[in-house]
């Protein structure tokens, strides 16, 4: 007979106060729900960076769908995915790309769902090319651009969580606990 293991994830601060509790059952439920966040990247090679966003979404129990689709190499399939994922209920899209990074911009052109852009350092220009491509959107089609690389990817997921938490009290509490745990980590740092 198959058995289901239900474990609890909990985070406590240095004084033992519980900051974060989530059962594996509710985590699994979140993951099987329809995606609230779409994560898309121009190439599999971008995943090393975008995994920082996916990890945060998992930690906060936010249902998401991650795909590789390129504005230049697979434009038709990209538009199809944007239509599908937003129709399913995605309320934020995170788009990471390097080089001539048009991914976030063309997605923003196709939807009114907020688009968060993550520039990726994948060319000899070290991400400055993608940063400028993403941040310099023409008036009328906004994209919110985060920092180059992993810090930007992690912050994109946290920003997505903040947007969703405006109408989801449980997520708001998980996010507050996550932030408090990070502060606690700093306070516990000691110097040699
Ligand atoms: N890219 C893919 N299609 C359009 C763009 N701008 C980007 C990817 C990746 C870079 O090109 O986002 O950062 C190199 O991709 P690859 O597949 O050659 O490693």
Keywords summarizing the entry:
single chain, 192 residues, alpha/beta, Rossmann fold, 5-stranded parallel beta sheet, two-stranded antiparallel ribbon, 45% helix, binds 5-aminoimidazole ribonucleotide
Please describe what this structure looks like.
- The chain contains seven helices and seven strands, in the order E-E-H-E-H-E-H-E-H-E-H-E-H-H.
- The protein has helices at 24-32, 47-59, 75-87, 103-110, 128-135, 150-165, 169-187, and strands at 8-12, 18-23, 37-41, 64-68, 92-98, 115-120, 144-145.
- The strands form two sheets. It has a five-stranded parallel sheet with strand order 4-3-5-6-7, with helices on both faces. It has a two-stranded antiparallel sheet with strand order 1-2.
- Helix 4 (103-110) links the parallel strand 5 (92-98) and strand 6 (115-120).
- It is globular.
- The termini are far apart.
- The model has no long low-confidence stretch (mean pLDDT 91).
- Bound molecules: 5-aminoimidazole ribonucleotide.
Helical stretch count? 7
Please indicate the percent range of residues in DSSP E strands (runs of 2 or more): 15-25%
What level of helicity do the residues show?
40-55%
Mean pLDDT: 91
**Number of E-state strands:** 7
The helix/strand order is: EEHEHEHEHEHEHH
CATH architect. name: 3-Layer(aba) Sandwich
> Can you summarize the main beta sheet?
5 strands, parallel
The level 1 CATH classification is Alpha Beta
Low-pLDDT sequence parts: none
Shape field: globular
CATH topology group: Rossmann fold
Question: Bound small molecules, which ones?
Answer: 5-aminoimidazole ribonucleotide
User: Which strands sit side by side, in order, in the main sheet?
Assistant: 4-3-5-6-7
Question: How many domains in all?
Answer: 1
* Overall SS class: alpha/beta
């Amino acid at each position: 007979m198959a058995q289901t293991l239900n474990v609890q994830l909990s985070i406590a601060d240095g004084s033992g106060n519980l900051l974060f509790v989530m059962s594996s059952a509710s985590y699994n439920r979140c993951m099987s729900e329809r995606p609230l966040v779409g994560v898309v990247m121009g190439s599999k090679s971008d995943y090393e960076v975008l995994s920082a966003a996916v990890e945060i979404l998992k930690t906060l129990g936010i249902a998401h769908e991650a795909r590789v689709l390129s504005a230049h190499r697979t434009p038709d399939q990209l538009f199809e995915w944007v239509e599908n994922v937003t129709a399913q209920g995605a309320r934020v899209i995170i788009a990471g790309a390097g080089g001539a990074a048009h991914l976030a911009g063309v997605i923003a052109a196709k939807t009114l769902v907020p688009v968060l852009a993550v520039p990726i350092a994948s060319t000899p220009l070290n991400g400055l090319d993608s940063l400028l491509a993403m941040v310099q959107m023409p008036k009328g089609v906004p994209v919110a651009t985060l920092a180059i690389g992993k810090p930007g990817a992690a912050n994109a997921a946290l920003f997505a969580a903040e947007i969703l938490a405006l109408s989801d009290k449980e997520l708001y509490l998980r996010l507050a606990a996550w932030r408090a745990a990070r502060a606690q980590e700093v306070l516990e740092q000691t110097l040699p």
